[in-house]
Structure formats: C-alpha cells, structure tokens
Amino acid sequence: MAWIVGIIQTKGGAGRSTFATNLAAHFSLQEPTTLIDCDLPQGTSSSWYALRQVEFASKNLLLAKARTHLELIQKAKEHAAISKYLIIDGPPRLTEVTRAIMILSNLCLIPLGASAAEIWSTTDLLQTLAEARSFKSEVDARLVWTRFRAQTREAQELKDAVNRGLKLDELQARLGYRVAFSEALARGLSAEECADRNAQAEVLSLAEEVKRILAEKER
Ligand SMILES: Nc1ncnc2c1ncn2[C@@H]1O[C@H](COP(=O)(O)OP(=O)(O)OP(=O)(O)O)[C@@H](O)[C@H]1O
Ligand SMILES: [Mg+2]
C-alpha cells in the first residue's frame, strides 16, 4: 500500500511546492516515490523535477501530472502500485482537485505562513474539509507553519490566534524563513541538499514527523 500525502492551501505562494518537493526528495532517498503535480499549467513541481533530472536523476523519484480530479484518481491508482509514497502538490484554489486530494490522502498538510492574509484564506479550506469529513470521517489535515520567524512577536501572536480560531491540528515541525528554501526550489534540489544546516534540520524533522504520523495509522 502506498502512503499518500497531499499538500493543500488555497492561498497562492503559501509554500505548497516547497513542502511537496522537499518531502518527495526526502522520501525518495529510501523508497520509490511519486510527486504528483496538480497545479497546472503553472507546474512548479514539474519544473523542479525537470531541473533535478539534469543532475540528480533518481529511479526512485517519479513525476505524474493531473489536471482534473479524475486524472488525479487515475494517476494515484497507477502510482500507488509502484511507489511507496505519493506526494501531491495541490492547486491554489478550491476545486474538485482539492476535494479529491482530501479524500485520497492519508495525511493532508496545509502550509501556513505566519501572516494575517494567509490565515484568513485558510478559513475557506475549513468548510471544504468539513464536507470531506462528512464523506470520510478519517480525513486527516494538519497545519504546518512555514516562513516562521520564531523570534518575532507577530509570529507568536498569529500562531496563538490560529490555535484558538482555526482548531486544526498542527505539526510540531515547521519551516523557518530561509533563503535555502527558495534556492533549493529554483535549482531542483531539496533544502537537505543545500548548505543551510537549519533548513536541513527542519526538512528532516518534517519528514520524520510525517513518517511517524503515517506509522501510527498502520497500527
Ligand atoms: N520557508 C520559506 N522560506 C523562504 N522562502 C520560501 C519558503 N517557503 C517558500 N518560499 C518561497 O516562496 C515562494 C512560494 O513558495 P512555493 O512555490 O512553495 O508556494 P506555492 O504555494 O506552491 O506557490 P504557487 O501558488 O506559486 O504554486 C517560492 O519562491 C519559494 O521558494
Ligand atoms: Mg506551487
């Protein structure tokens, strides 16, 4: 059985492709992994993958593309037979694709930057999440902080407000605001493959926490 991790967020530029590419690169070090790009025609994950093929091609990391929810279901079925992990990069809109990602995934991650605009846009997702849960009660979606500036009061205040208001589970792991993340994305790398030790440690913690959550589901 393949584990499916979907990255969803309606706010553009929230960090979906950063999470998707870093998790896909990490998991592919150990197991066959497919990155499914559902954010087309933009295709950030697809462009990252194409760049990666030039120097870091690995038989363990495949790319699939899906423009519609039906295509996503088909690709997920095909790749679940050959990969251990499917990582889905979602679109920046609430569409049938977003709903399909919620239903298909064992775990959905909702990247959230510590800024008010991103937090407001996340409330849109909650209604859709509630609808998905009325269909499949075990839909598991968790916030994950990104571009987090731990030392600022604004970040801490926003985090507290979100914990009170959104009532979503959140990951302990989070990504800080680091140039390594944008550099890695632009070069077809994961932040673990860049020199920034903080970024490396954050991706490692993220991947390990995701693995722990998935392992708990197996019990
Ligand atoms: N933690 C971070 N620190 C610094 N820059 C980041 C971080 N996360 C993402 N970025 C940068 O912010 C931009 C948007 O991130 P990303 O492409 O991952 O978001 P997205 O939600 O997939 O956006 P889009 O709507 O364009 O698909 C990129 O340039 C990325 O490199
Ligand atoms: Mg993207």
Q: Total number of helical segments?
A: 8
The end-to-end span amounts to 14 Å
Weakly predicted, low-confidence segments: none
- Rg, Å, rounded: 16 Å
Structural class: alpha/beta
Give the overall shape: globular
Q: Count the E strands.
A: 7
* Helix/strand order, N-terminal first: EHEHEHEHEHEHEHH
Distinct compounds present: adenosine-5'-triphosphate, magnesium ion
- Percentage of residues in DSSP E strands: 15-25%
Q: Characterize the biggest β-sheet.
A: 7 strands, parallel
Mean pLDDT: 93
Estimate the helix proportion, in percent: 40-55%
Structure description:
It is a single chain. The chain is of the alpha/beta class. It has 8 helices and 7 strands; from the N terminus they run E-H-E-H-E-H-E-H-E-H-E-H-E-H-H. Strands 3-2-4-1-5-6-7 form a 7-stranded parallel sheet, sandwiched between helices. Magnesium ion binds next to helix 1. The site of magnesium ion has 5 residues, from helix 1.
Q: What would you say about this model in short?
A:
By secondary structure, this protein is α/β, with parallel strands linked by helices.
Q: Which key phrases capture this entry?
A:
8 helices; alpha/beta; 16% strand; 219 residues; binds magnesium ion
Fold blueprint:
Elements: E1 3-7, H1 16-28, E2 33-37, H2 44-56, E3 61-65, H3 69-80, E4 85-89, H4 96-104, E5 107-113, H5 116-135, E6 141-146, H6 153-165, E7 169-170, H7 179-187, H8 197-218
Parallel strand pairs: 1-4, 1-5, 2-3, 2-4, 5-6, 6-7
This protein binds adenosine-5'-triphosphate (ATP) and magnesium ion (MG).
Residues 9, 12-18, 39, 42, 44, 92, 146-147, 175, 177-178, 181-182, 185 line the site of adenosine-5'-triphosphate (ATP).
